[in-house]
Every structure is written in C-alpha cells, then in structure tokens.
Design brief:
The complex is a heterodimer of chains A (441) and B (513). Chain A is α/β, with parallel strands linked by helices and 441 residues long. Chain A contains 14 helices and 22 strands. In chain A, the strands form four sheets. In chain A, strands 3-2-1-4-5-6 form a six-stranded parallel beta sheet, sandwiched between helices. Classes of the chains: A alpha/beta (441), B mainly alpha (513).
Chain lengths: 441, 513
C-alpha cells in the first residue's frame, strides 16, 4: 500500500516504525532535519514541503497514495492537509490527527470531509479508562466491540495461588481466557503448560471482559470497585480523562493550580470534587487524605511535574499511579521512578492511526512491550492454511490465538474447536512474525 | 508661552448629573398616560351599579392628562432609558402610580379613605399588591370603589410580573441576574422592548388564571354551594388572588366564604406564587416537565406542604380547630402568608404565640422569584443555603472549588454576593421600619405595641398585608399615626422594588460621577 505521511515528528516516526517494512511510504515535512532523521532510519521517500500547500502536496505525489495520514502536531495543518488530500487523491483513505475533541464531534456529525479523525486526548482518556476499569491491569485494549479484552497484569505478592506458583496446566484460570505471555525477569515467553506465573512477573491475558475482571481480583485481591481516583491537572487531557471516567461511574477528585481551569472543571463536572492547589503541598495532601485515593492520574503539562507528583503521591500512600508522558524519553524515566503506568498520548495516537494502514482484513492492532509484540485481528480466507484445523493441532510459532469472533460473537477456543473461513482471529504475536501470521491466515 | 488650543481639543464643561432625569420622567409620563385608561373599568362598574361615575372619570382624565403633559414637556430626541435610569424609573413609577390610583379614594373615600395619607396608603398597598388596608367598614364603601381596590392590585400585579422578570434582572437587583434568561428573547433588547415582550407573553398566563379563578368561584355561587359568593365577590377575589394582593371585600376576609371557596383560593394562591415564566413554559408551551425540573418550584411546593402540615398540627394541637377544619385553617394561612397574599380564613391574630411565630417566620420566606409575591423569595433562600453549605465545606477544605448551581447552570459569584447583600438590606430595612413605627406608636400613644410593630413592618416590607394584634387579618391600619402609615408606605414601596433600586437612589455616585 502506498502511504502518504504528513508530519515526521513523534507520532509520524512511531507510525513509520510500525509500517515502514511492509508499505511504500512518502513523508512530507517542513523541517529538513526531521526528514533527514527519518530517512536515515527507514527506507522511505521524503519531501520537504508544507502540508497546507496544495502545490507541495501534489508535487510530493499525494495523488497516487492509497492512505493519507496527516499527523503533525498542529490541528489546523492536519485539517487543511486532509481536505486537500481528499481533492488530490479522491480514492485514498484520509486519517487526520487532532488534539481537540470538538473536531471528532464535527467529524461524527459529518461536518469534516475526511475518513477518520483520531484525537490524542480522547485516545489517551480511553487508554486510561481501560486501565482503571480493570483495577489490577497495567494495560488493556479491547477488540470486537469490547467482547474481547487483552490485558497486561502485574502479578502481586498477594496474588491467589490458584493461578500463580504452579504450572499453568494445573492453574484454575478463569474460563474464556488465555495467558498470552509471561513477562518475567528473564524475558518474555509465550507460555506452555509447564510455565509458572510468579509474583513480580507481568502477564498478558486475552479473554472476555468478565474473565479480565476475574483475573484482576485473582492477581490483585485488594482491588474492587473504583470509587476514588484523583486526577492531577484539569487541562485538556485531564478534563477529557475526567469526562470518560465519570461516564463509567468512577468517583473522581481533581486538582488544578490554575484558577480559571479549576473553575471550568468544577462547572463541567458537577460530580467531581475539584481543588485549586498544586498537588505538591504536604499539608494539603495530608488534610484532604489524597493518599487514600485508589489511583492517581497525573495529567499536567509538564512531565517533570507528573513524575514528581506521582512519586510524592506514592509517598502519601496512593497505591497506583498513572502518568502522562508527553515526551518519549519520559516513559523510561517514569518506569525508573516506579510509576505504575505511563501513557504517551502521541504513541497512543500513532497506534490508533496505524490500525488504518494495515491489511483491510486486519482490523485492529495493539503494540505491547515497546512494539516487540502485536495483537492482530485478522479475518481468515478460503486459502488460509489452517482453516479446518483444530486449535490443538496448530503449530506454536511465537503466536497465540486468543479469541475468534464468529458471526459477530466472541468465542474463546478450546483444543477441539476448528478454525473456519470468515472467522476473525485475534492473535498475539511477536512483531517479527506479523507478516507470517497474516499470510498464514 | 500660552498656546491657544484648537476648539475641538478643549475639554468639555462639567455635566452635573449622571442620570438622564428628563428621559426617566418621560418614560413615567408615558406609563401614566396609559394608566389613565385603567380607570375606564371602574367607571363601567359604577354605571352598572348606578353609582357616582365622576370620581373615576376625573381621576382617569387627570392621570392621562398629567402623563401626557409630562411626556410632551420632556420629549427630546436621542433620549434612551438605560440601566442607570431604570432604578429611578421603577422607583418613581410606583410612587406616581400610587398617587394616581389614590385619586378616587380622595374624591369619594369619605371618612375611611378621604384623608390624603389614608388614600395614599390604600393606593400603595394596592399597586404593591400588599393588601394592608385602612378600611374599617366595608359595607359603607360604594361597590365601584370596593372593586377599584381589588382592581388596583390586579393592575399592580401585572406591573410586578414585568418588574420581576423583565426589569429587575436587567438592573441586576439582589441577584436577579440568575433569572436573566427566563424568557427566550433578544438578549440585548432595550428595556422598553423587553417590558413589552414580557408583558405580552406572561400577561396571557396572568389573565387566563384570573379568569379561571373568577369562573370557579362564581360557579360556587351560581350552583348554590356558597351563598355568600356573588359574581361581584368572585371577580373581586380573583383580582386580588393572582397578584398575591389580599384585599378582600369583607372585613372577615375569606372566612366569610365556604370551605370549597377557600380551597379554590388556596390553589390559585399557590399558582400566583409560582414563577410566571415557568408557568408560561409549562402551561402555554405545554412542557409540564419544566415544573419538575425547576429547583425553586420544587422547594416552593415542599415549603408550602411543610408549612401547611406544621400549621395544621399546631392548630389542631392547640384546639383552635379540629379535623378537616384544622387542615383547611393550617393550609390556608400557611399558603396565604408564604405566597405573601395575606388573605385569612380565620382570625389568626387571636392564635397562640407559637402559631404566630410560625406565621411570622413564613413572612420572611416569600414566594418564587418571577411571581407576583413579595418578601425574600424561595430562590434567594435556596442559593443562600447553597452558599452556606459551600462555606462550611471550604472551612474544612479551603482549596475546594465549588460553583453554585441553580437549575444545573453555574451561578456567578457576583450574583451570589448580590443575594447576600439583598438579604442583609432586607433585614436592615425591616429593623429600621420597626424602630420608627414602635417609636411613633409610643409617642402618639395610638396603634401598636412593639411586637405588633415588628409584625407590621415585616408584613409591609414583604407585601403581605395583615400582621398581628390590632392590624391582624380582621383588623385595620386606620388607627395608626401618620408617621407609622408613611413608614409602612415606604416599606411597601421598597419591598416591592426589592429595596436595592430605592437604596441605590441614596448613593452619591448614582447621581454624580
């Protein structure tokens, strides 16, 4: 597929990382230095030019593209570029990135002439809501309209011995779920019956939402309903997170230093309790019992503040912290600081955009463990090698079928089940095996 | 070196007044011109009953004539009544209206109403829809004059609706801003357009409810269910219920009528105390859910219920009345005082102290904002309660940000401050009025004891009407000294205009920049 990418910043390079090997990619950017960096690493065509200039777009060859991705950091540029691309390449799919939910609403209302709008604030909020929704989860993603969940758990010391410290084939794992990977100190394994889940490991589970919750209570017995989450920062990201979490019925408190933003948040969210404070004063944290919160979400503009705030919150007793990492380097720093989950809005956005670039049969994809593993959602063809094969007879090739979606309903396959034509297969696999898996199915 | 500045660069002369007084007087004149037409109605009534016609014709002619003359003499191009002029306009309008309305009393009031202060008291009580009266012997009044008393309240009530929904919110009086968007309409319309717009829409509700009540009461008389309820009485009482006025054609107020008539009046008093803009949405636009969604309406109904139950229990407990009579006595008095109507179905002045205190407390509640009722009003109590709750929350957590909401929409802090200021001014005016009346009564030896003075001041300021003791529902204000009467006139006037427009006129920077 010919992909035309506008913007070679953080989102752009993350997309390139995922797509460069299988697609013919042209990159347009105004900054030569960024293009140079991209060209050094990937086999792509680069053009210096302005996304808002129709002439530049035409000269760079947008007309022959199958997929146009406008993902600069500026909404206006993406909008204009998306609209021009629509004229230059009427048959191409156009996807634009935005940081304003208003554009998503406009697009849903049919007011924006592009195929898809991906909003980083909204994607970030959804990513966080998936984590908070399953209390012990570190990362989750949903497939098949929420019927299939893929969840990464941290295994705690107090985890139930029904599933830990014994070989997997003896574990009483929740029904309709599969352990796709065990990430231990020694590395990641796609587990067999002999492998053991130990406290300190992280595991990836594919299963029904119900099973995900069961796993959650098995691995973190002190979980339960989420009634008190504190969001630090009520800016655009913080407010979007609040909106999504409140819709899920999660109890919220918000802390914001700007008087104006605090007032706006308090007016917008009658159910949330909003404080005007930095969130760093020990006196305030102590008096308002911020430490009693079940989770803290750090959505301030400054990564350094998010990291410090999260650490301070841990000191005050918040057991679970999620921090927004605006810069890619911050993710590693957050990890070092023992922040439980870091969410990078740009990466979340890139993942969402990449979904449009993959094989039309492949509906969704999630990247785990720094892109080493991917989750694919592939529809089987007549010519698929394994159609008619029982699941127990399938080879183990660094890939695992977590679930299949048959006639719109999710099925969690057992050894005797047989793969049929037209099944949507949700596969957990190493990134290197993606082409092979897609081809085989 | 002195340099002659070009003429255009010289600073202008000092303007003495910050208020466009001629424009304001012009507006009041225009209103008076139309007020003259109102006198046609009692003229027709006088013809019907074969009574003297000239007092009304003369009063009407004087009113229109003065109005026209004033309007002509102050006419000028480019005059515009803005917010600044609005305060003066409403204040003067009610003073002037009372003066014109008092003319028939002067001409034909005889001993009871002929004295200028008495006539002005009765007229002010009418146009402010208070219902306090100096009449002692109702049977001696001509019927046309009796109906005129009721009709002044009805006209005053129309003015009150416009004042409450179109004018006071615009003048940002006492936190009325929250009602600014009550009626859909052009946001930046001129005050006069707004008045016309509101009067036209809400006038329908007002007129319709009055007509329905008059028919309902008259039907009782026609069907023989109430021997005392003549068509004349039905119309008179409908004229004084909808404006929450409270003038009656009888010395015994509503106690002269049947239980059915009293219950009908209770229902219409409750309606009169509801927000007319809300009733327009609910009844005319056929959105009955608006009532349920309105916070103030819910609290208003709840207060009416609680007050009715509380009074019923006390009436029953003290043995004043029993069974159904106790329920009716409790509900009638509770709703009458809560809505600031001021009818009575029993002489509550004779009730035990605890009951009097309950009624006294109700005097400070008032009906809904946007109704014809007076006093502090439910919306202000509601928002004050929310402010207090927030203060308590912030005592524990100073950092917490809590916007105060009214019907879901955040209320801005200036509005809240204005409400608190209003309540303080209200209480201040009441204390001041009480003091003057008590001192006057002590000096003249006539009239009221201190406790009765407290009640009379609260009643006048809340535009209720009756108080306790000799000025109770079956009594009269006739025996008071002139200073007391003038004080009560001032309280009725200030209370009706929600005090702030009157007090604003006393500040230096209103007049001079």
């Amino acid at each position: 597929m010919r992909v035309f990418l506008i913007g070679a910043g953080q989102v752009g390079s993350t997309i390139l990382e995922a797509l460069h090997s299988d697609h013919e990619i042209t990159v347009l950017d105004t900054e030569m230095s960024r293009l140079q960096a991209v060209a050094d690493r990937y086999d792509v065509t680069t053009h210096e030019g302005d996304g808002t200039s129709r002439r530049d777009l035409a000269r760079a060859g947008v007309g022959s593209a199958d997929l146009v991705l406008a993902c600069t950091s500026r909404d206006e540029v993406n909008l204009v570029a998306g609209m021009f691309a629509r004229r230059e390449a009427p048959s191409a799919t156009t996807v634009i990135r935005t940081s304003n939910v208003e554009y998503v609403e406009l697009w849903r209302g049919g007011q924006l002439d592009v195929d898809f709008v991906v909003c980083s604030e909204l994607e970030t909020a959804h990513a966080i809501s998936r984590i908070i929704g399953v209390p012990a989860a570190r990362k989750t993603d949903v497939f098949a309209d929420g019927q299939v969940q893929i969840v990464e758990f941290a295994v705690e010391e107090g985890a139930s011995t029904e599933v830990t410290r014994l070989p997997l084939r003896d574990a009483k794992a929740p029904t309709d779920s599969k352990v796709a990977a065990i990430i231990g100190r020694s590395g990641t394994t796609l587990p067999g019956g002999d492998d053991v889940i130990s406290p300190g490991d992280r595991i990836v589970v594919i299963g029904s939402p119900q099973a995900a919750l069961e796993w959650s209570s098995l691995l973190a017995p002190n979980g339960g309903a989420v009634r008190d989450v504190v969001i630090f920062g009520a800016g655009r990201v913080g407010s979007q997170i609040a909106r999504v979490l409140l819709e899920q019925g999660i109890g919220l408190r918000m802390i914001e230093i700007s008087r104006e933003q605090a007032r706006r948040a308090a007016e917008a969210f009658p159910k949330a309790r909003v404080y005007r404070a930095t969130g760093f004063e020990p006196d305030f944290l102590e008096r308002e019992r911020i430490g009693q919160a079940q989770a803290g979400i750090f959505a301030m503009r400054d990564d350094a503040k998010n990291q410090y705030g999260a650490t301070l919150a841990k000191v005050h007793g918040i057991p679970f912290t999620i921090a927004i990492a605006h810069e890619a380097v911050s993710e590693a720093a957050f990890d070092q600081a023992r922040i439980d989950v870091s969410v990078n809005p740009r990466r979340v956005t890139a993942e969402e955009i990449v979904r449009f670039a993959l094989d039309p049969r492949t509906k969704q994809v999630a990247m785990l463990e720094g892109n080493r593993y991917e989750v694919l959602d592939v529809t089987t063809r007549d010519s698929s090698r394994y159609v008619g094969t029982a699941f127990r007879d399938m080879p183990v090739h660094g890939a695992l079928i977590g679930a299949i979606v048959r006639n719109g309903a999710a099925v969690f396959p057992h050894g005797d089940d047989v793969l049929q034509v037209g099944d949507r297969v949700i596969v957990f696999t190493e990134a290197a095996n993606v082409p092979w898996v897609v081809e085989a199915l | 070196m002195l340099e002659a500045l070009p003429r255009a660069h010289r600073i202008g002369p000092r303007r003495r007044l910050a208020v466009d007084v001629p424009a304001t007087v012009n507006l009041v004149g225009a209103l008076a011109k139309y007020l003259g037409l109102v006198f046609l109605f009692p003229t027709l009534v006088a013809i019907w009953y074969g009574e003297s016609v000239w007092p009304f014709l003369a009063a009407g002619a004087i009113t229109s004539g003065v109005g026209l003359a004033v309007e002509r003499s102050t006419a000028g191009a480019g005059r515009r009544v803005g917010v600044r002029e609005g305060f003066l306009a409403v204040s003067v309008a009610w003073l002037a209206a009372a003066a014109f309305v008092s003319l028939p009393y002067l001409f034909e009031g005889g001993d009871q109403l002929g004295h200028p202060i008495d006539a002005y008291f009765e007229a002010m009580s009418g146009v402010t829809t208070t219902g306090a009266t100096v009449v002692t012997s109702y049977d001696d009044l001509p019927r046309s004059l009796d109906l005129w008393r009721a009709f002044t309240q009805w006209i005053g009530g129309m003015g009150v609706i416009v004042l409450a929904i179109a004018v006071l919110p615009r003048l940002r009086v006492g936190g009325r801003q929250m009602l600014e968007s009550e009626l859909p309409g052009p946001e930046l319309a001129q005050l006069s357009d707004r008045i016309r717009h509101t009067a036209r829409r809400l006038g329908i509700v007002y007129v319709a409810l009055t007509a329905i009540e008059a028919l309902a009461l008259a039907a009782l008389g026609w069907l023989g269910a109430d021997a005392h309820m003549s068509t004349f009485e039905a119309v008179s009482h409908a004229f004084t219920t909808m404006p929450t006025g409270g003038f009656s054609t009888r010395a015994g107020s509503m106690s002269a009528f049947s239980a059915a008539a009293q219950w009908i009046v209770v229902v219409f008093m409750l309606l009169a105390g509801a927000n007319f803009a809300l009733m327009y949405r609910g009844f005319v636009r056929r959105r009955p859910r608006s009532f349920l969604r309105d916070e103030e309406f819910r609290l208003y109904v709840a207060l009416a219920l609680v007050a009715s139950v509380a009074l019923t229990a006390q009436v029953w407990g003290h043995g004043v009345a029993h069974g159904g009579d106790a329920v009716r006595a409790g509900a009638f008095q509770a709703v009458s005082i809560l809505t600031t109507t001021g009818y009575a179905s029993a002489n509550f002045a004779l009730w035990p102290t605890l009951l009097l205190l309950s009624l006294f407390a109700l005097m400070f509640v008032g009906a809904s904002a946007g109704s014809t009722g007076g006093s502090i009003k439910v919306a202000r109590h509601l928002l004050t309660g929310k402010v207090l709750r927030r203060e308590l929350d912030q005592t524990v957590s100073p950092e917490v940000v809590m916007p105060i909401r009214f019907n879901g929409a955040p209320v801005d802090e200036r509005t809240l401050r204005a409400i608190v200021a209003f309540i303080l001014l209200y209480v201040g005016a009441w204390v001041l009025g009480t003091g003057v009346i008590a001192i006057d009564s002590a000096i003249t030896g006539a009239g009221l004891g201190t406790l009765d003075a407290i009640g009379a001041a609260a009643s006048a300021l809340g535009n209720i009407g009756p108080a306790f003791g000799s000025v109770g529902p079956m009594g009269s204000y006739a025996g008071l000294g002139d200073v007391s009467k003038l004080t009560l006139i001032g309280l009725m006037w200030a209370g009706r205009l929600e005090i702030i427009p009157v007090v604003v006129l006393l500040t230096r920077h209103y007049w001079r920049l």
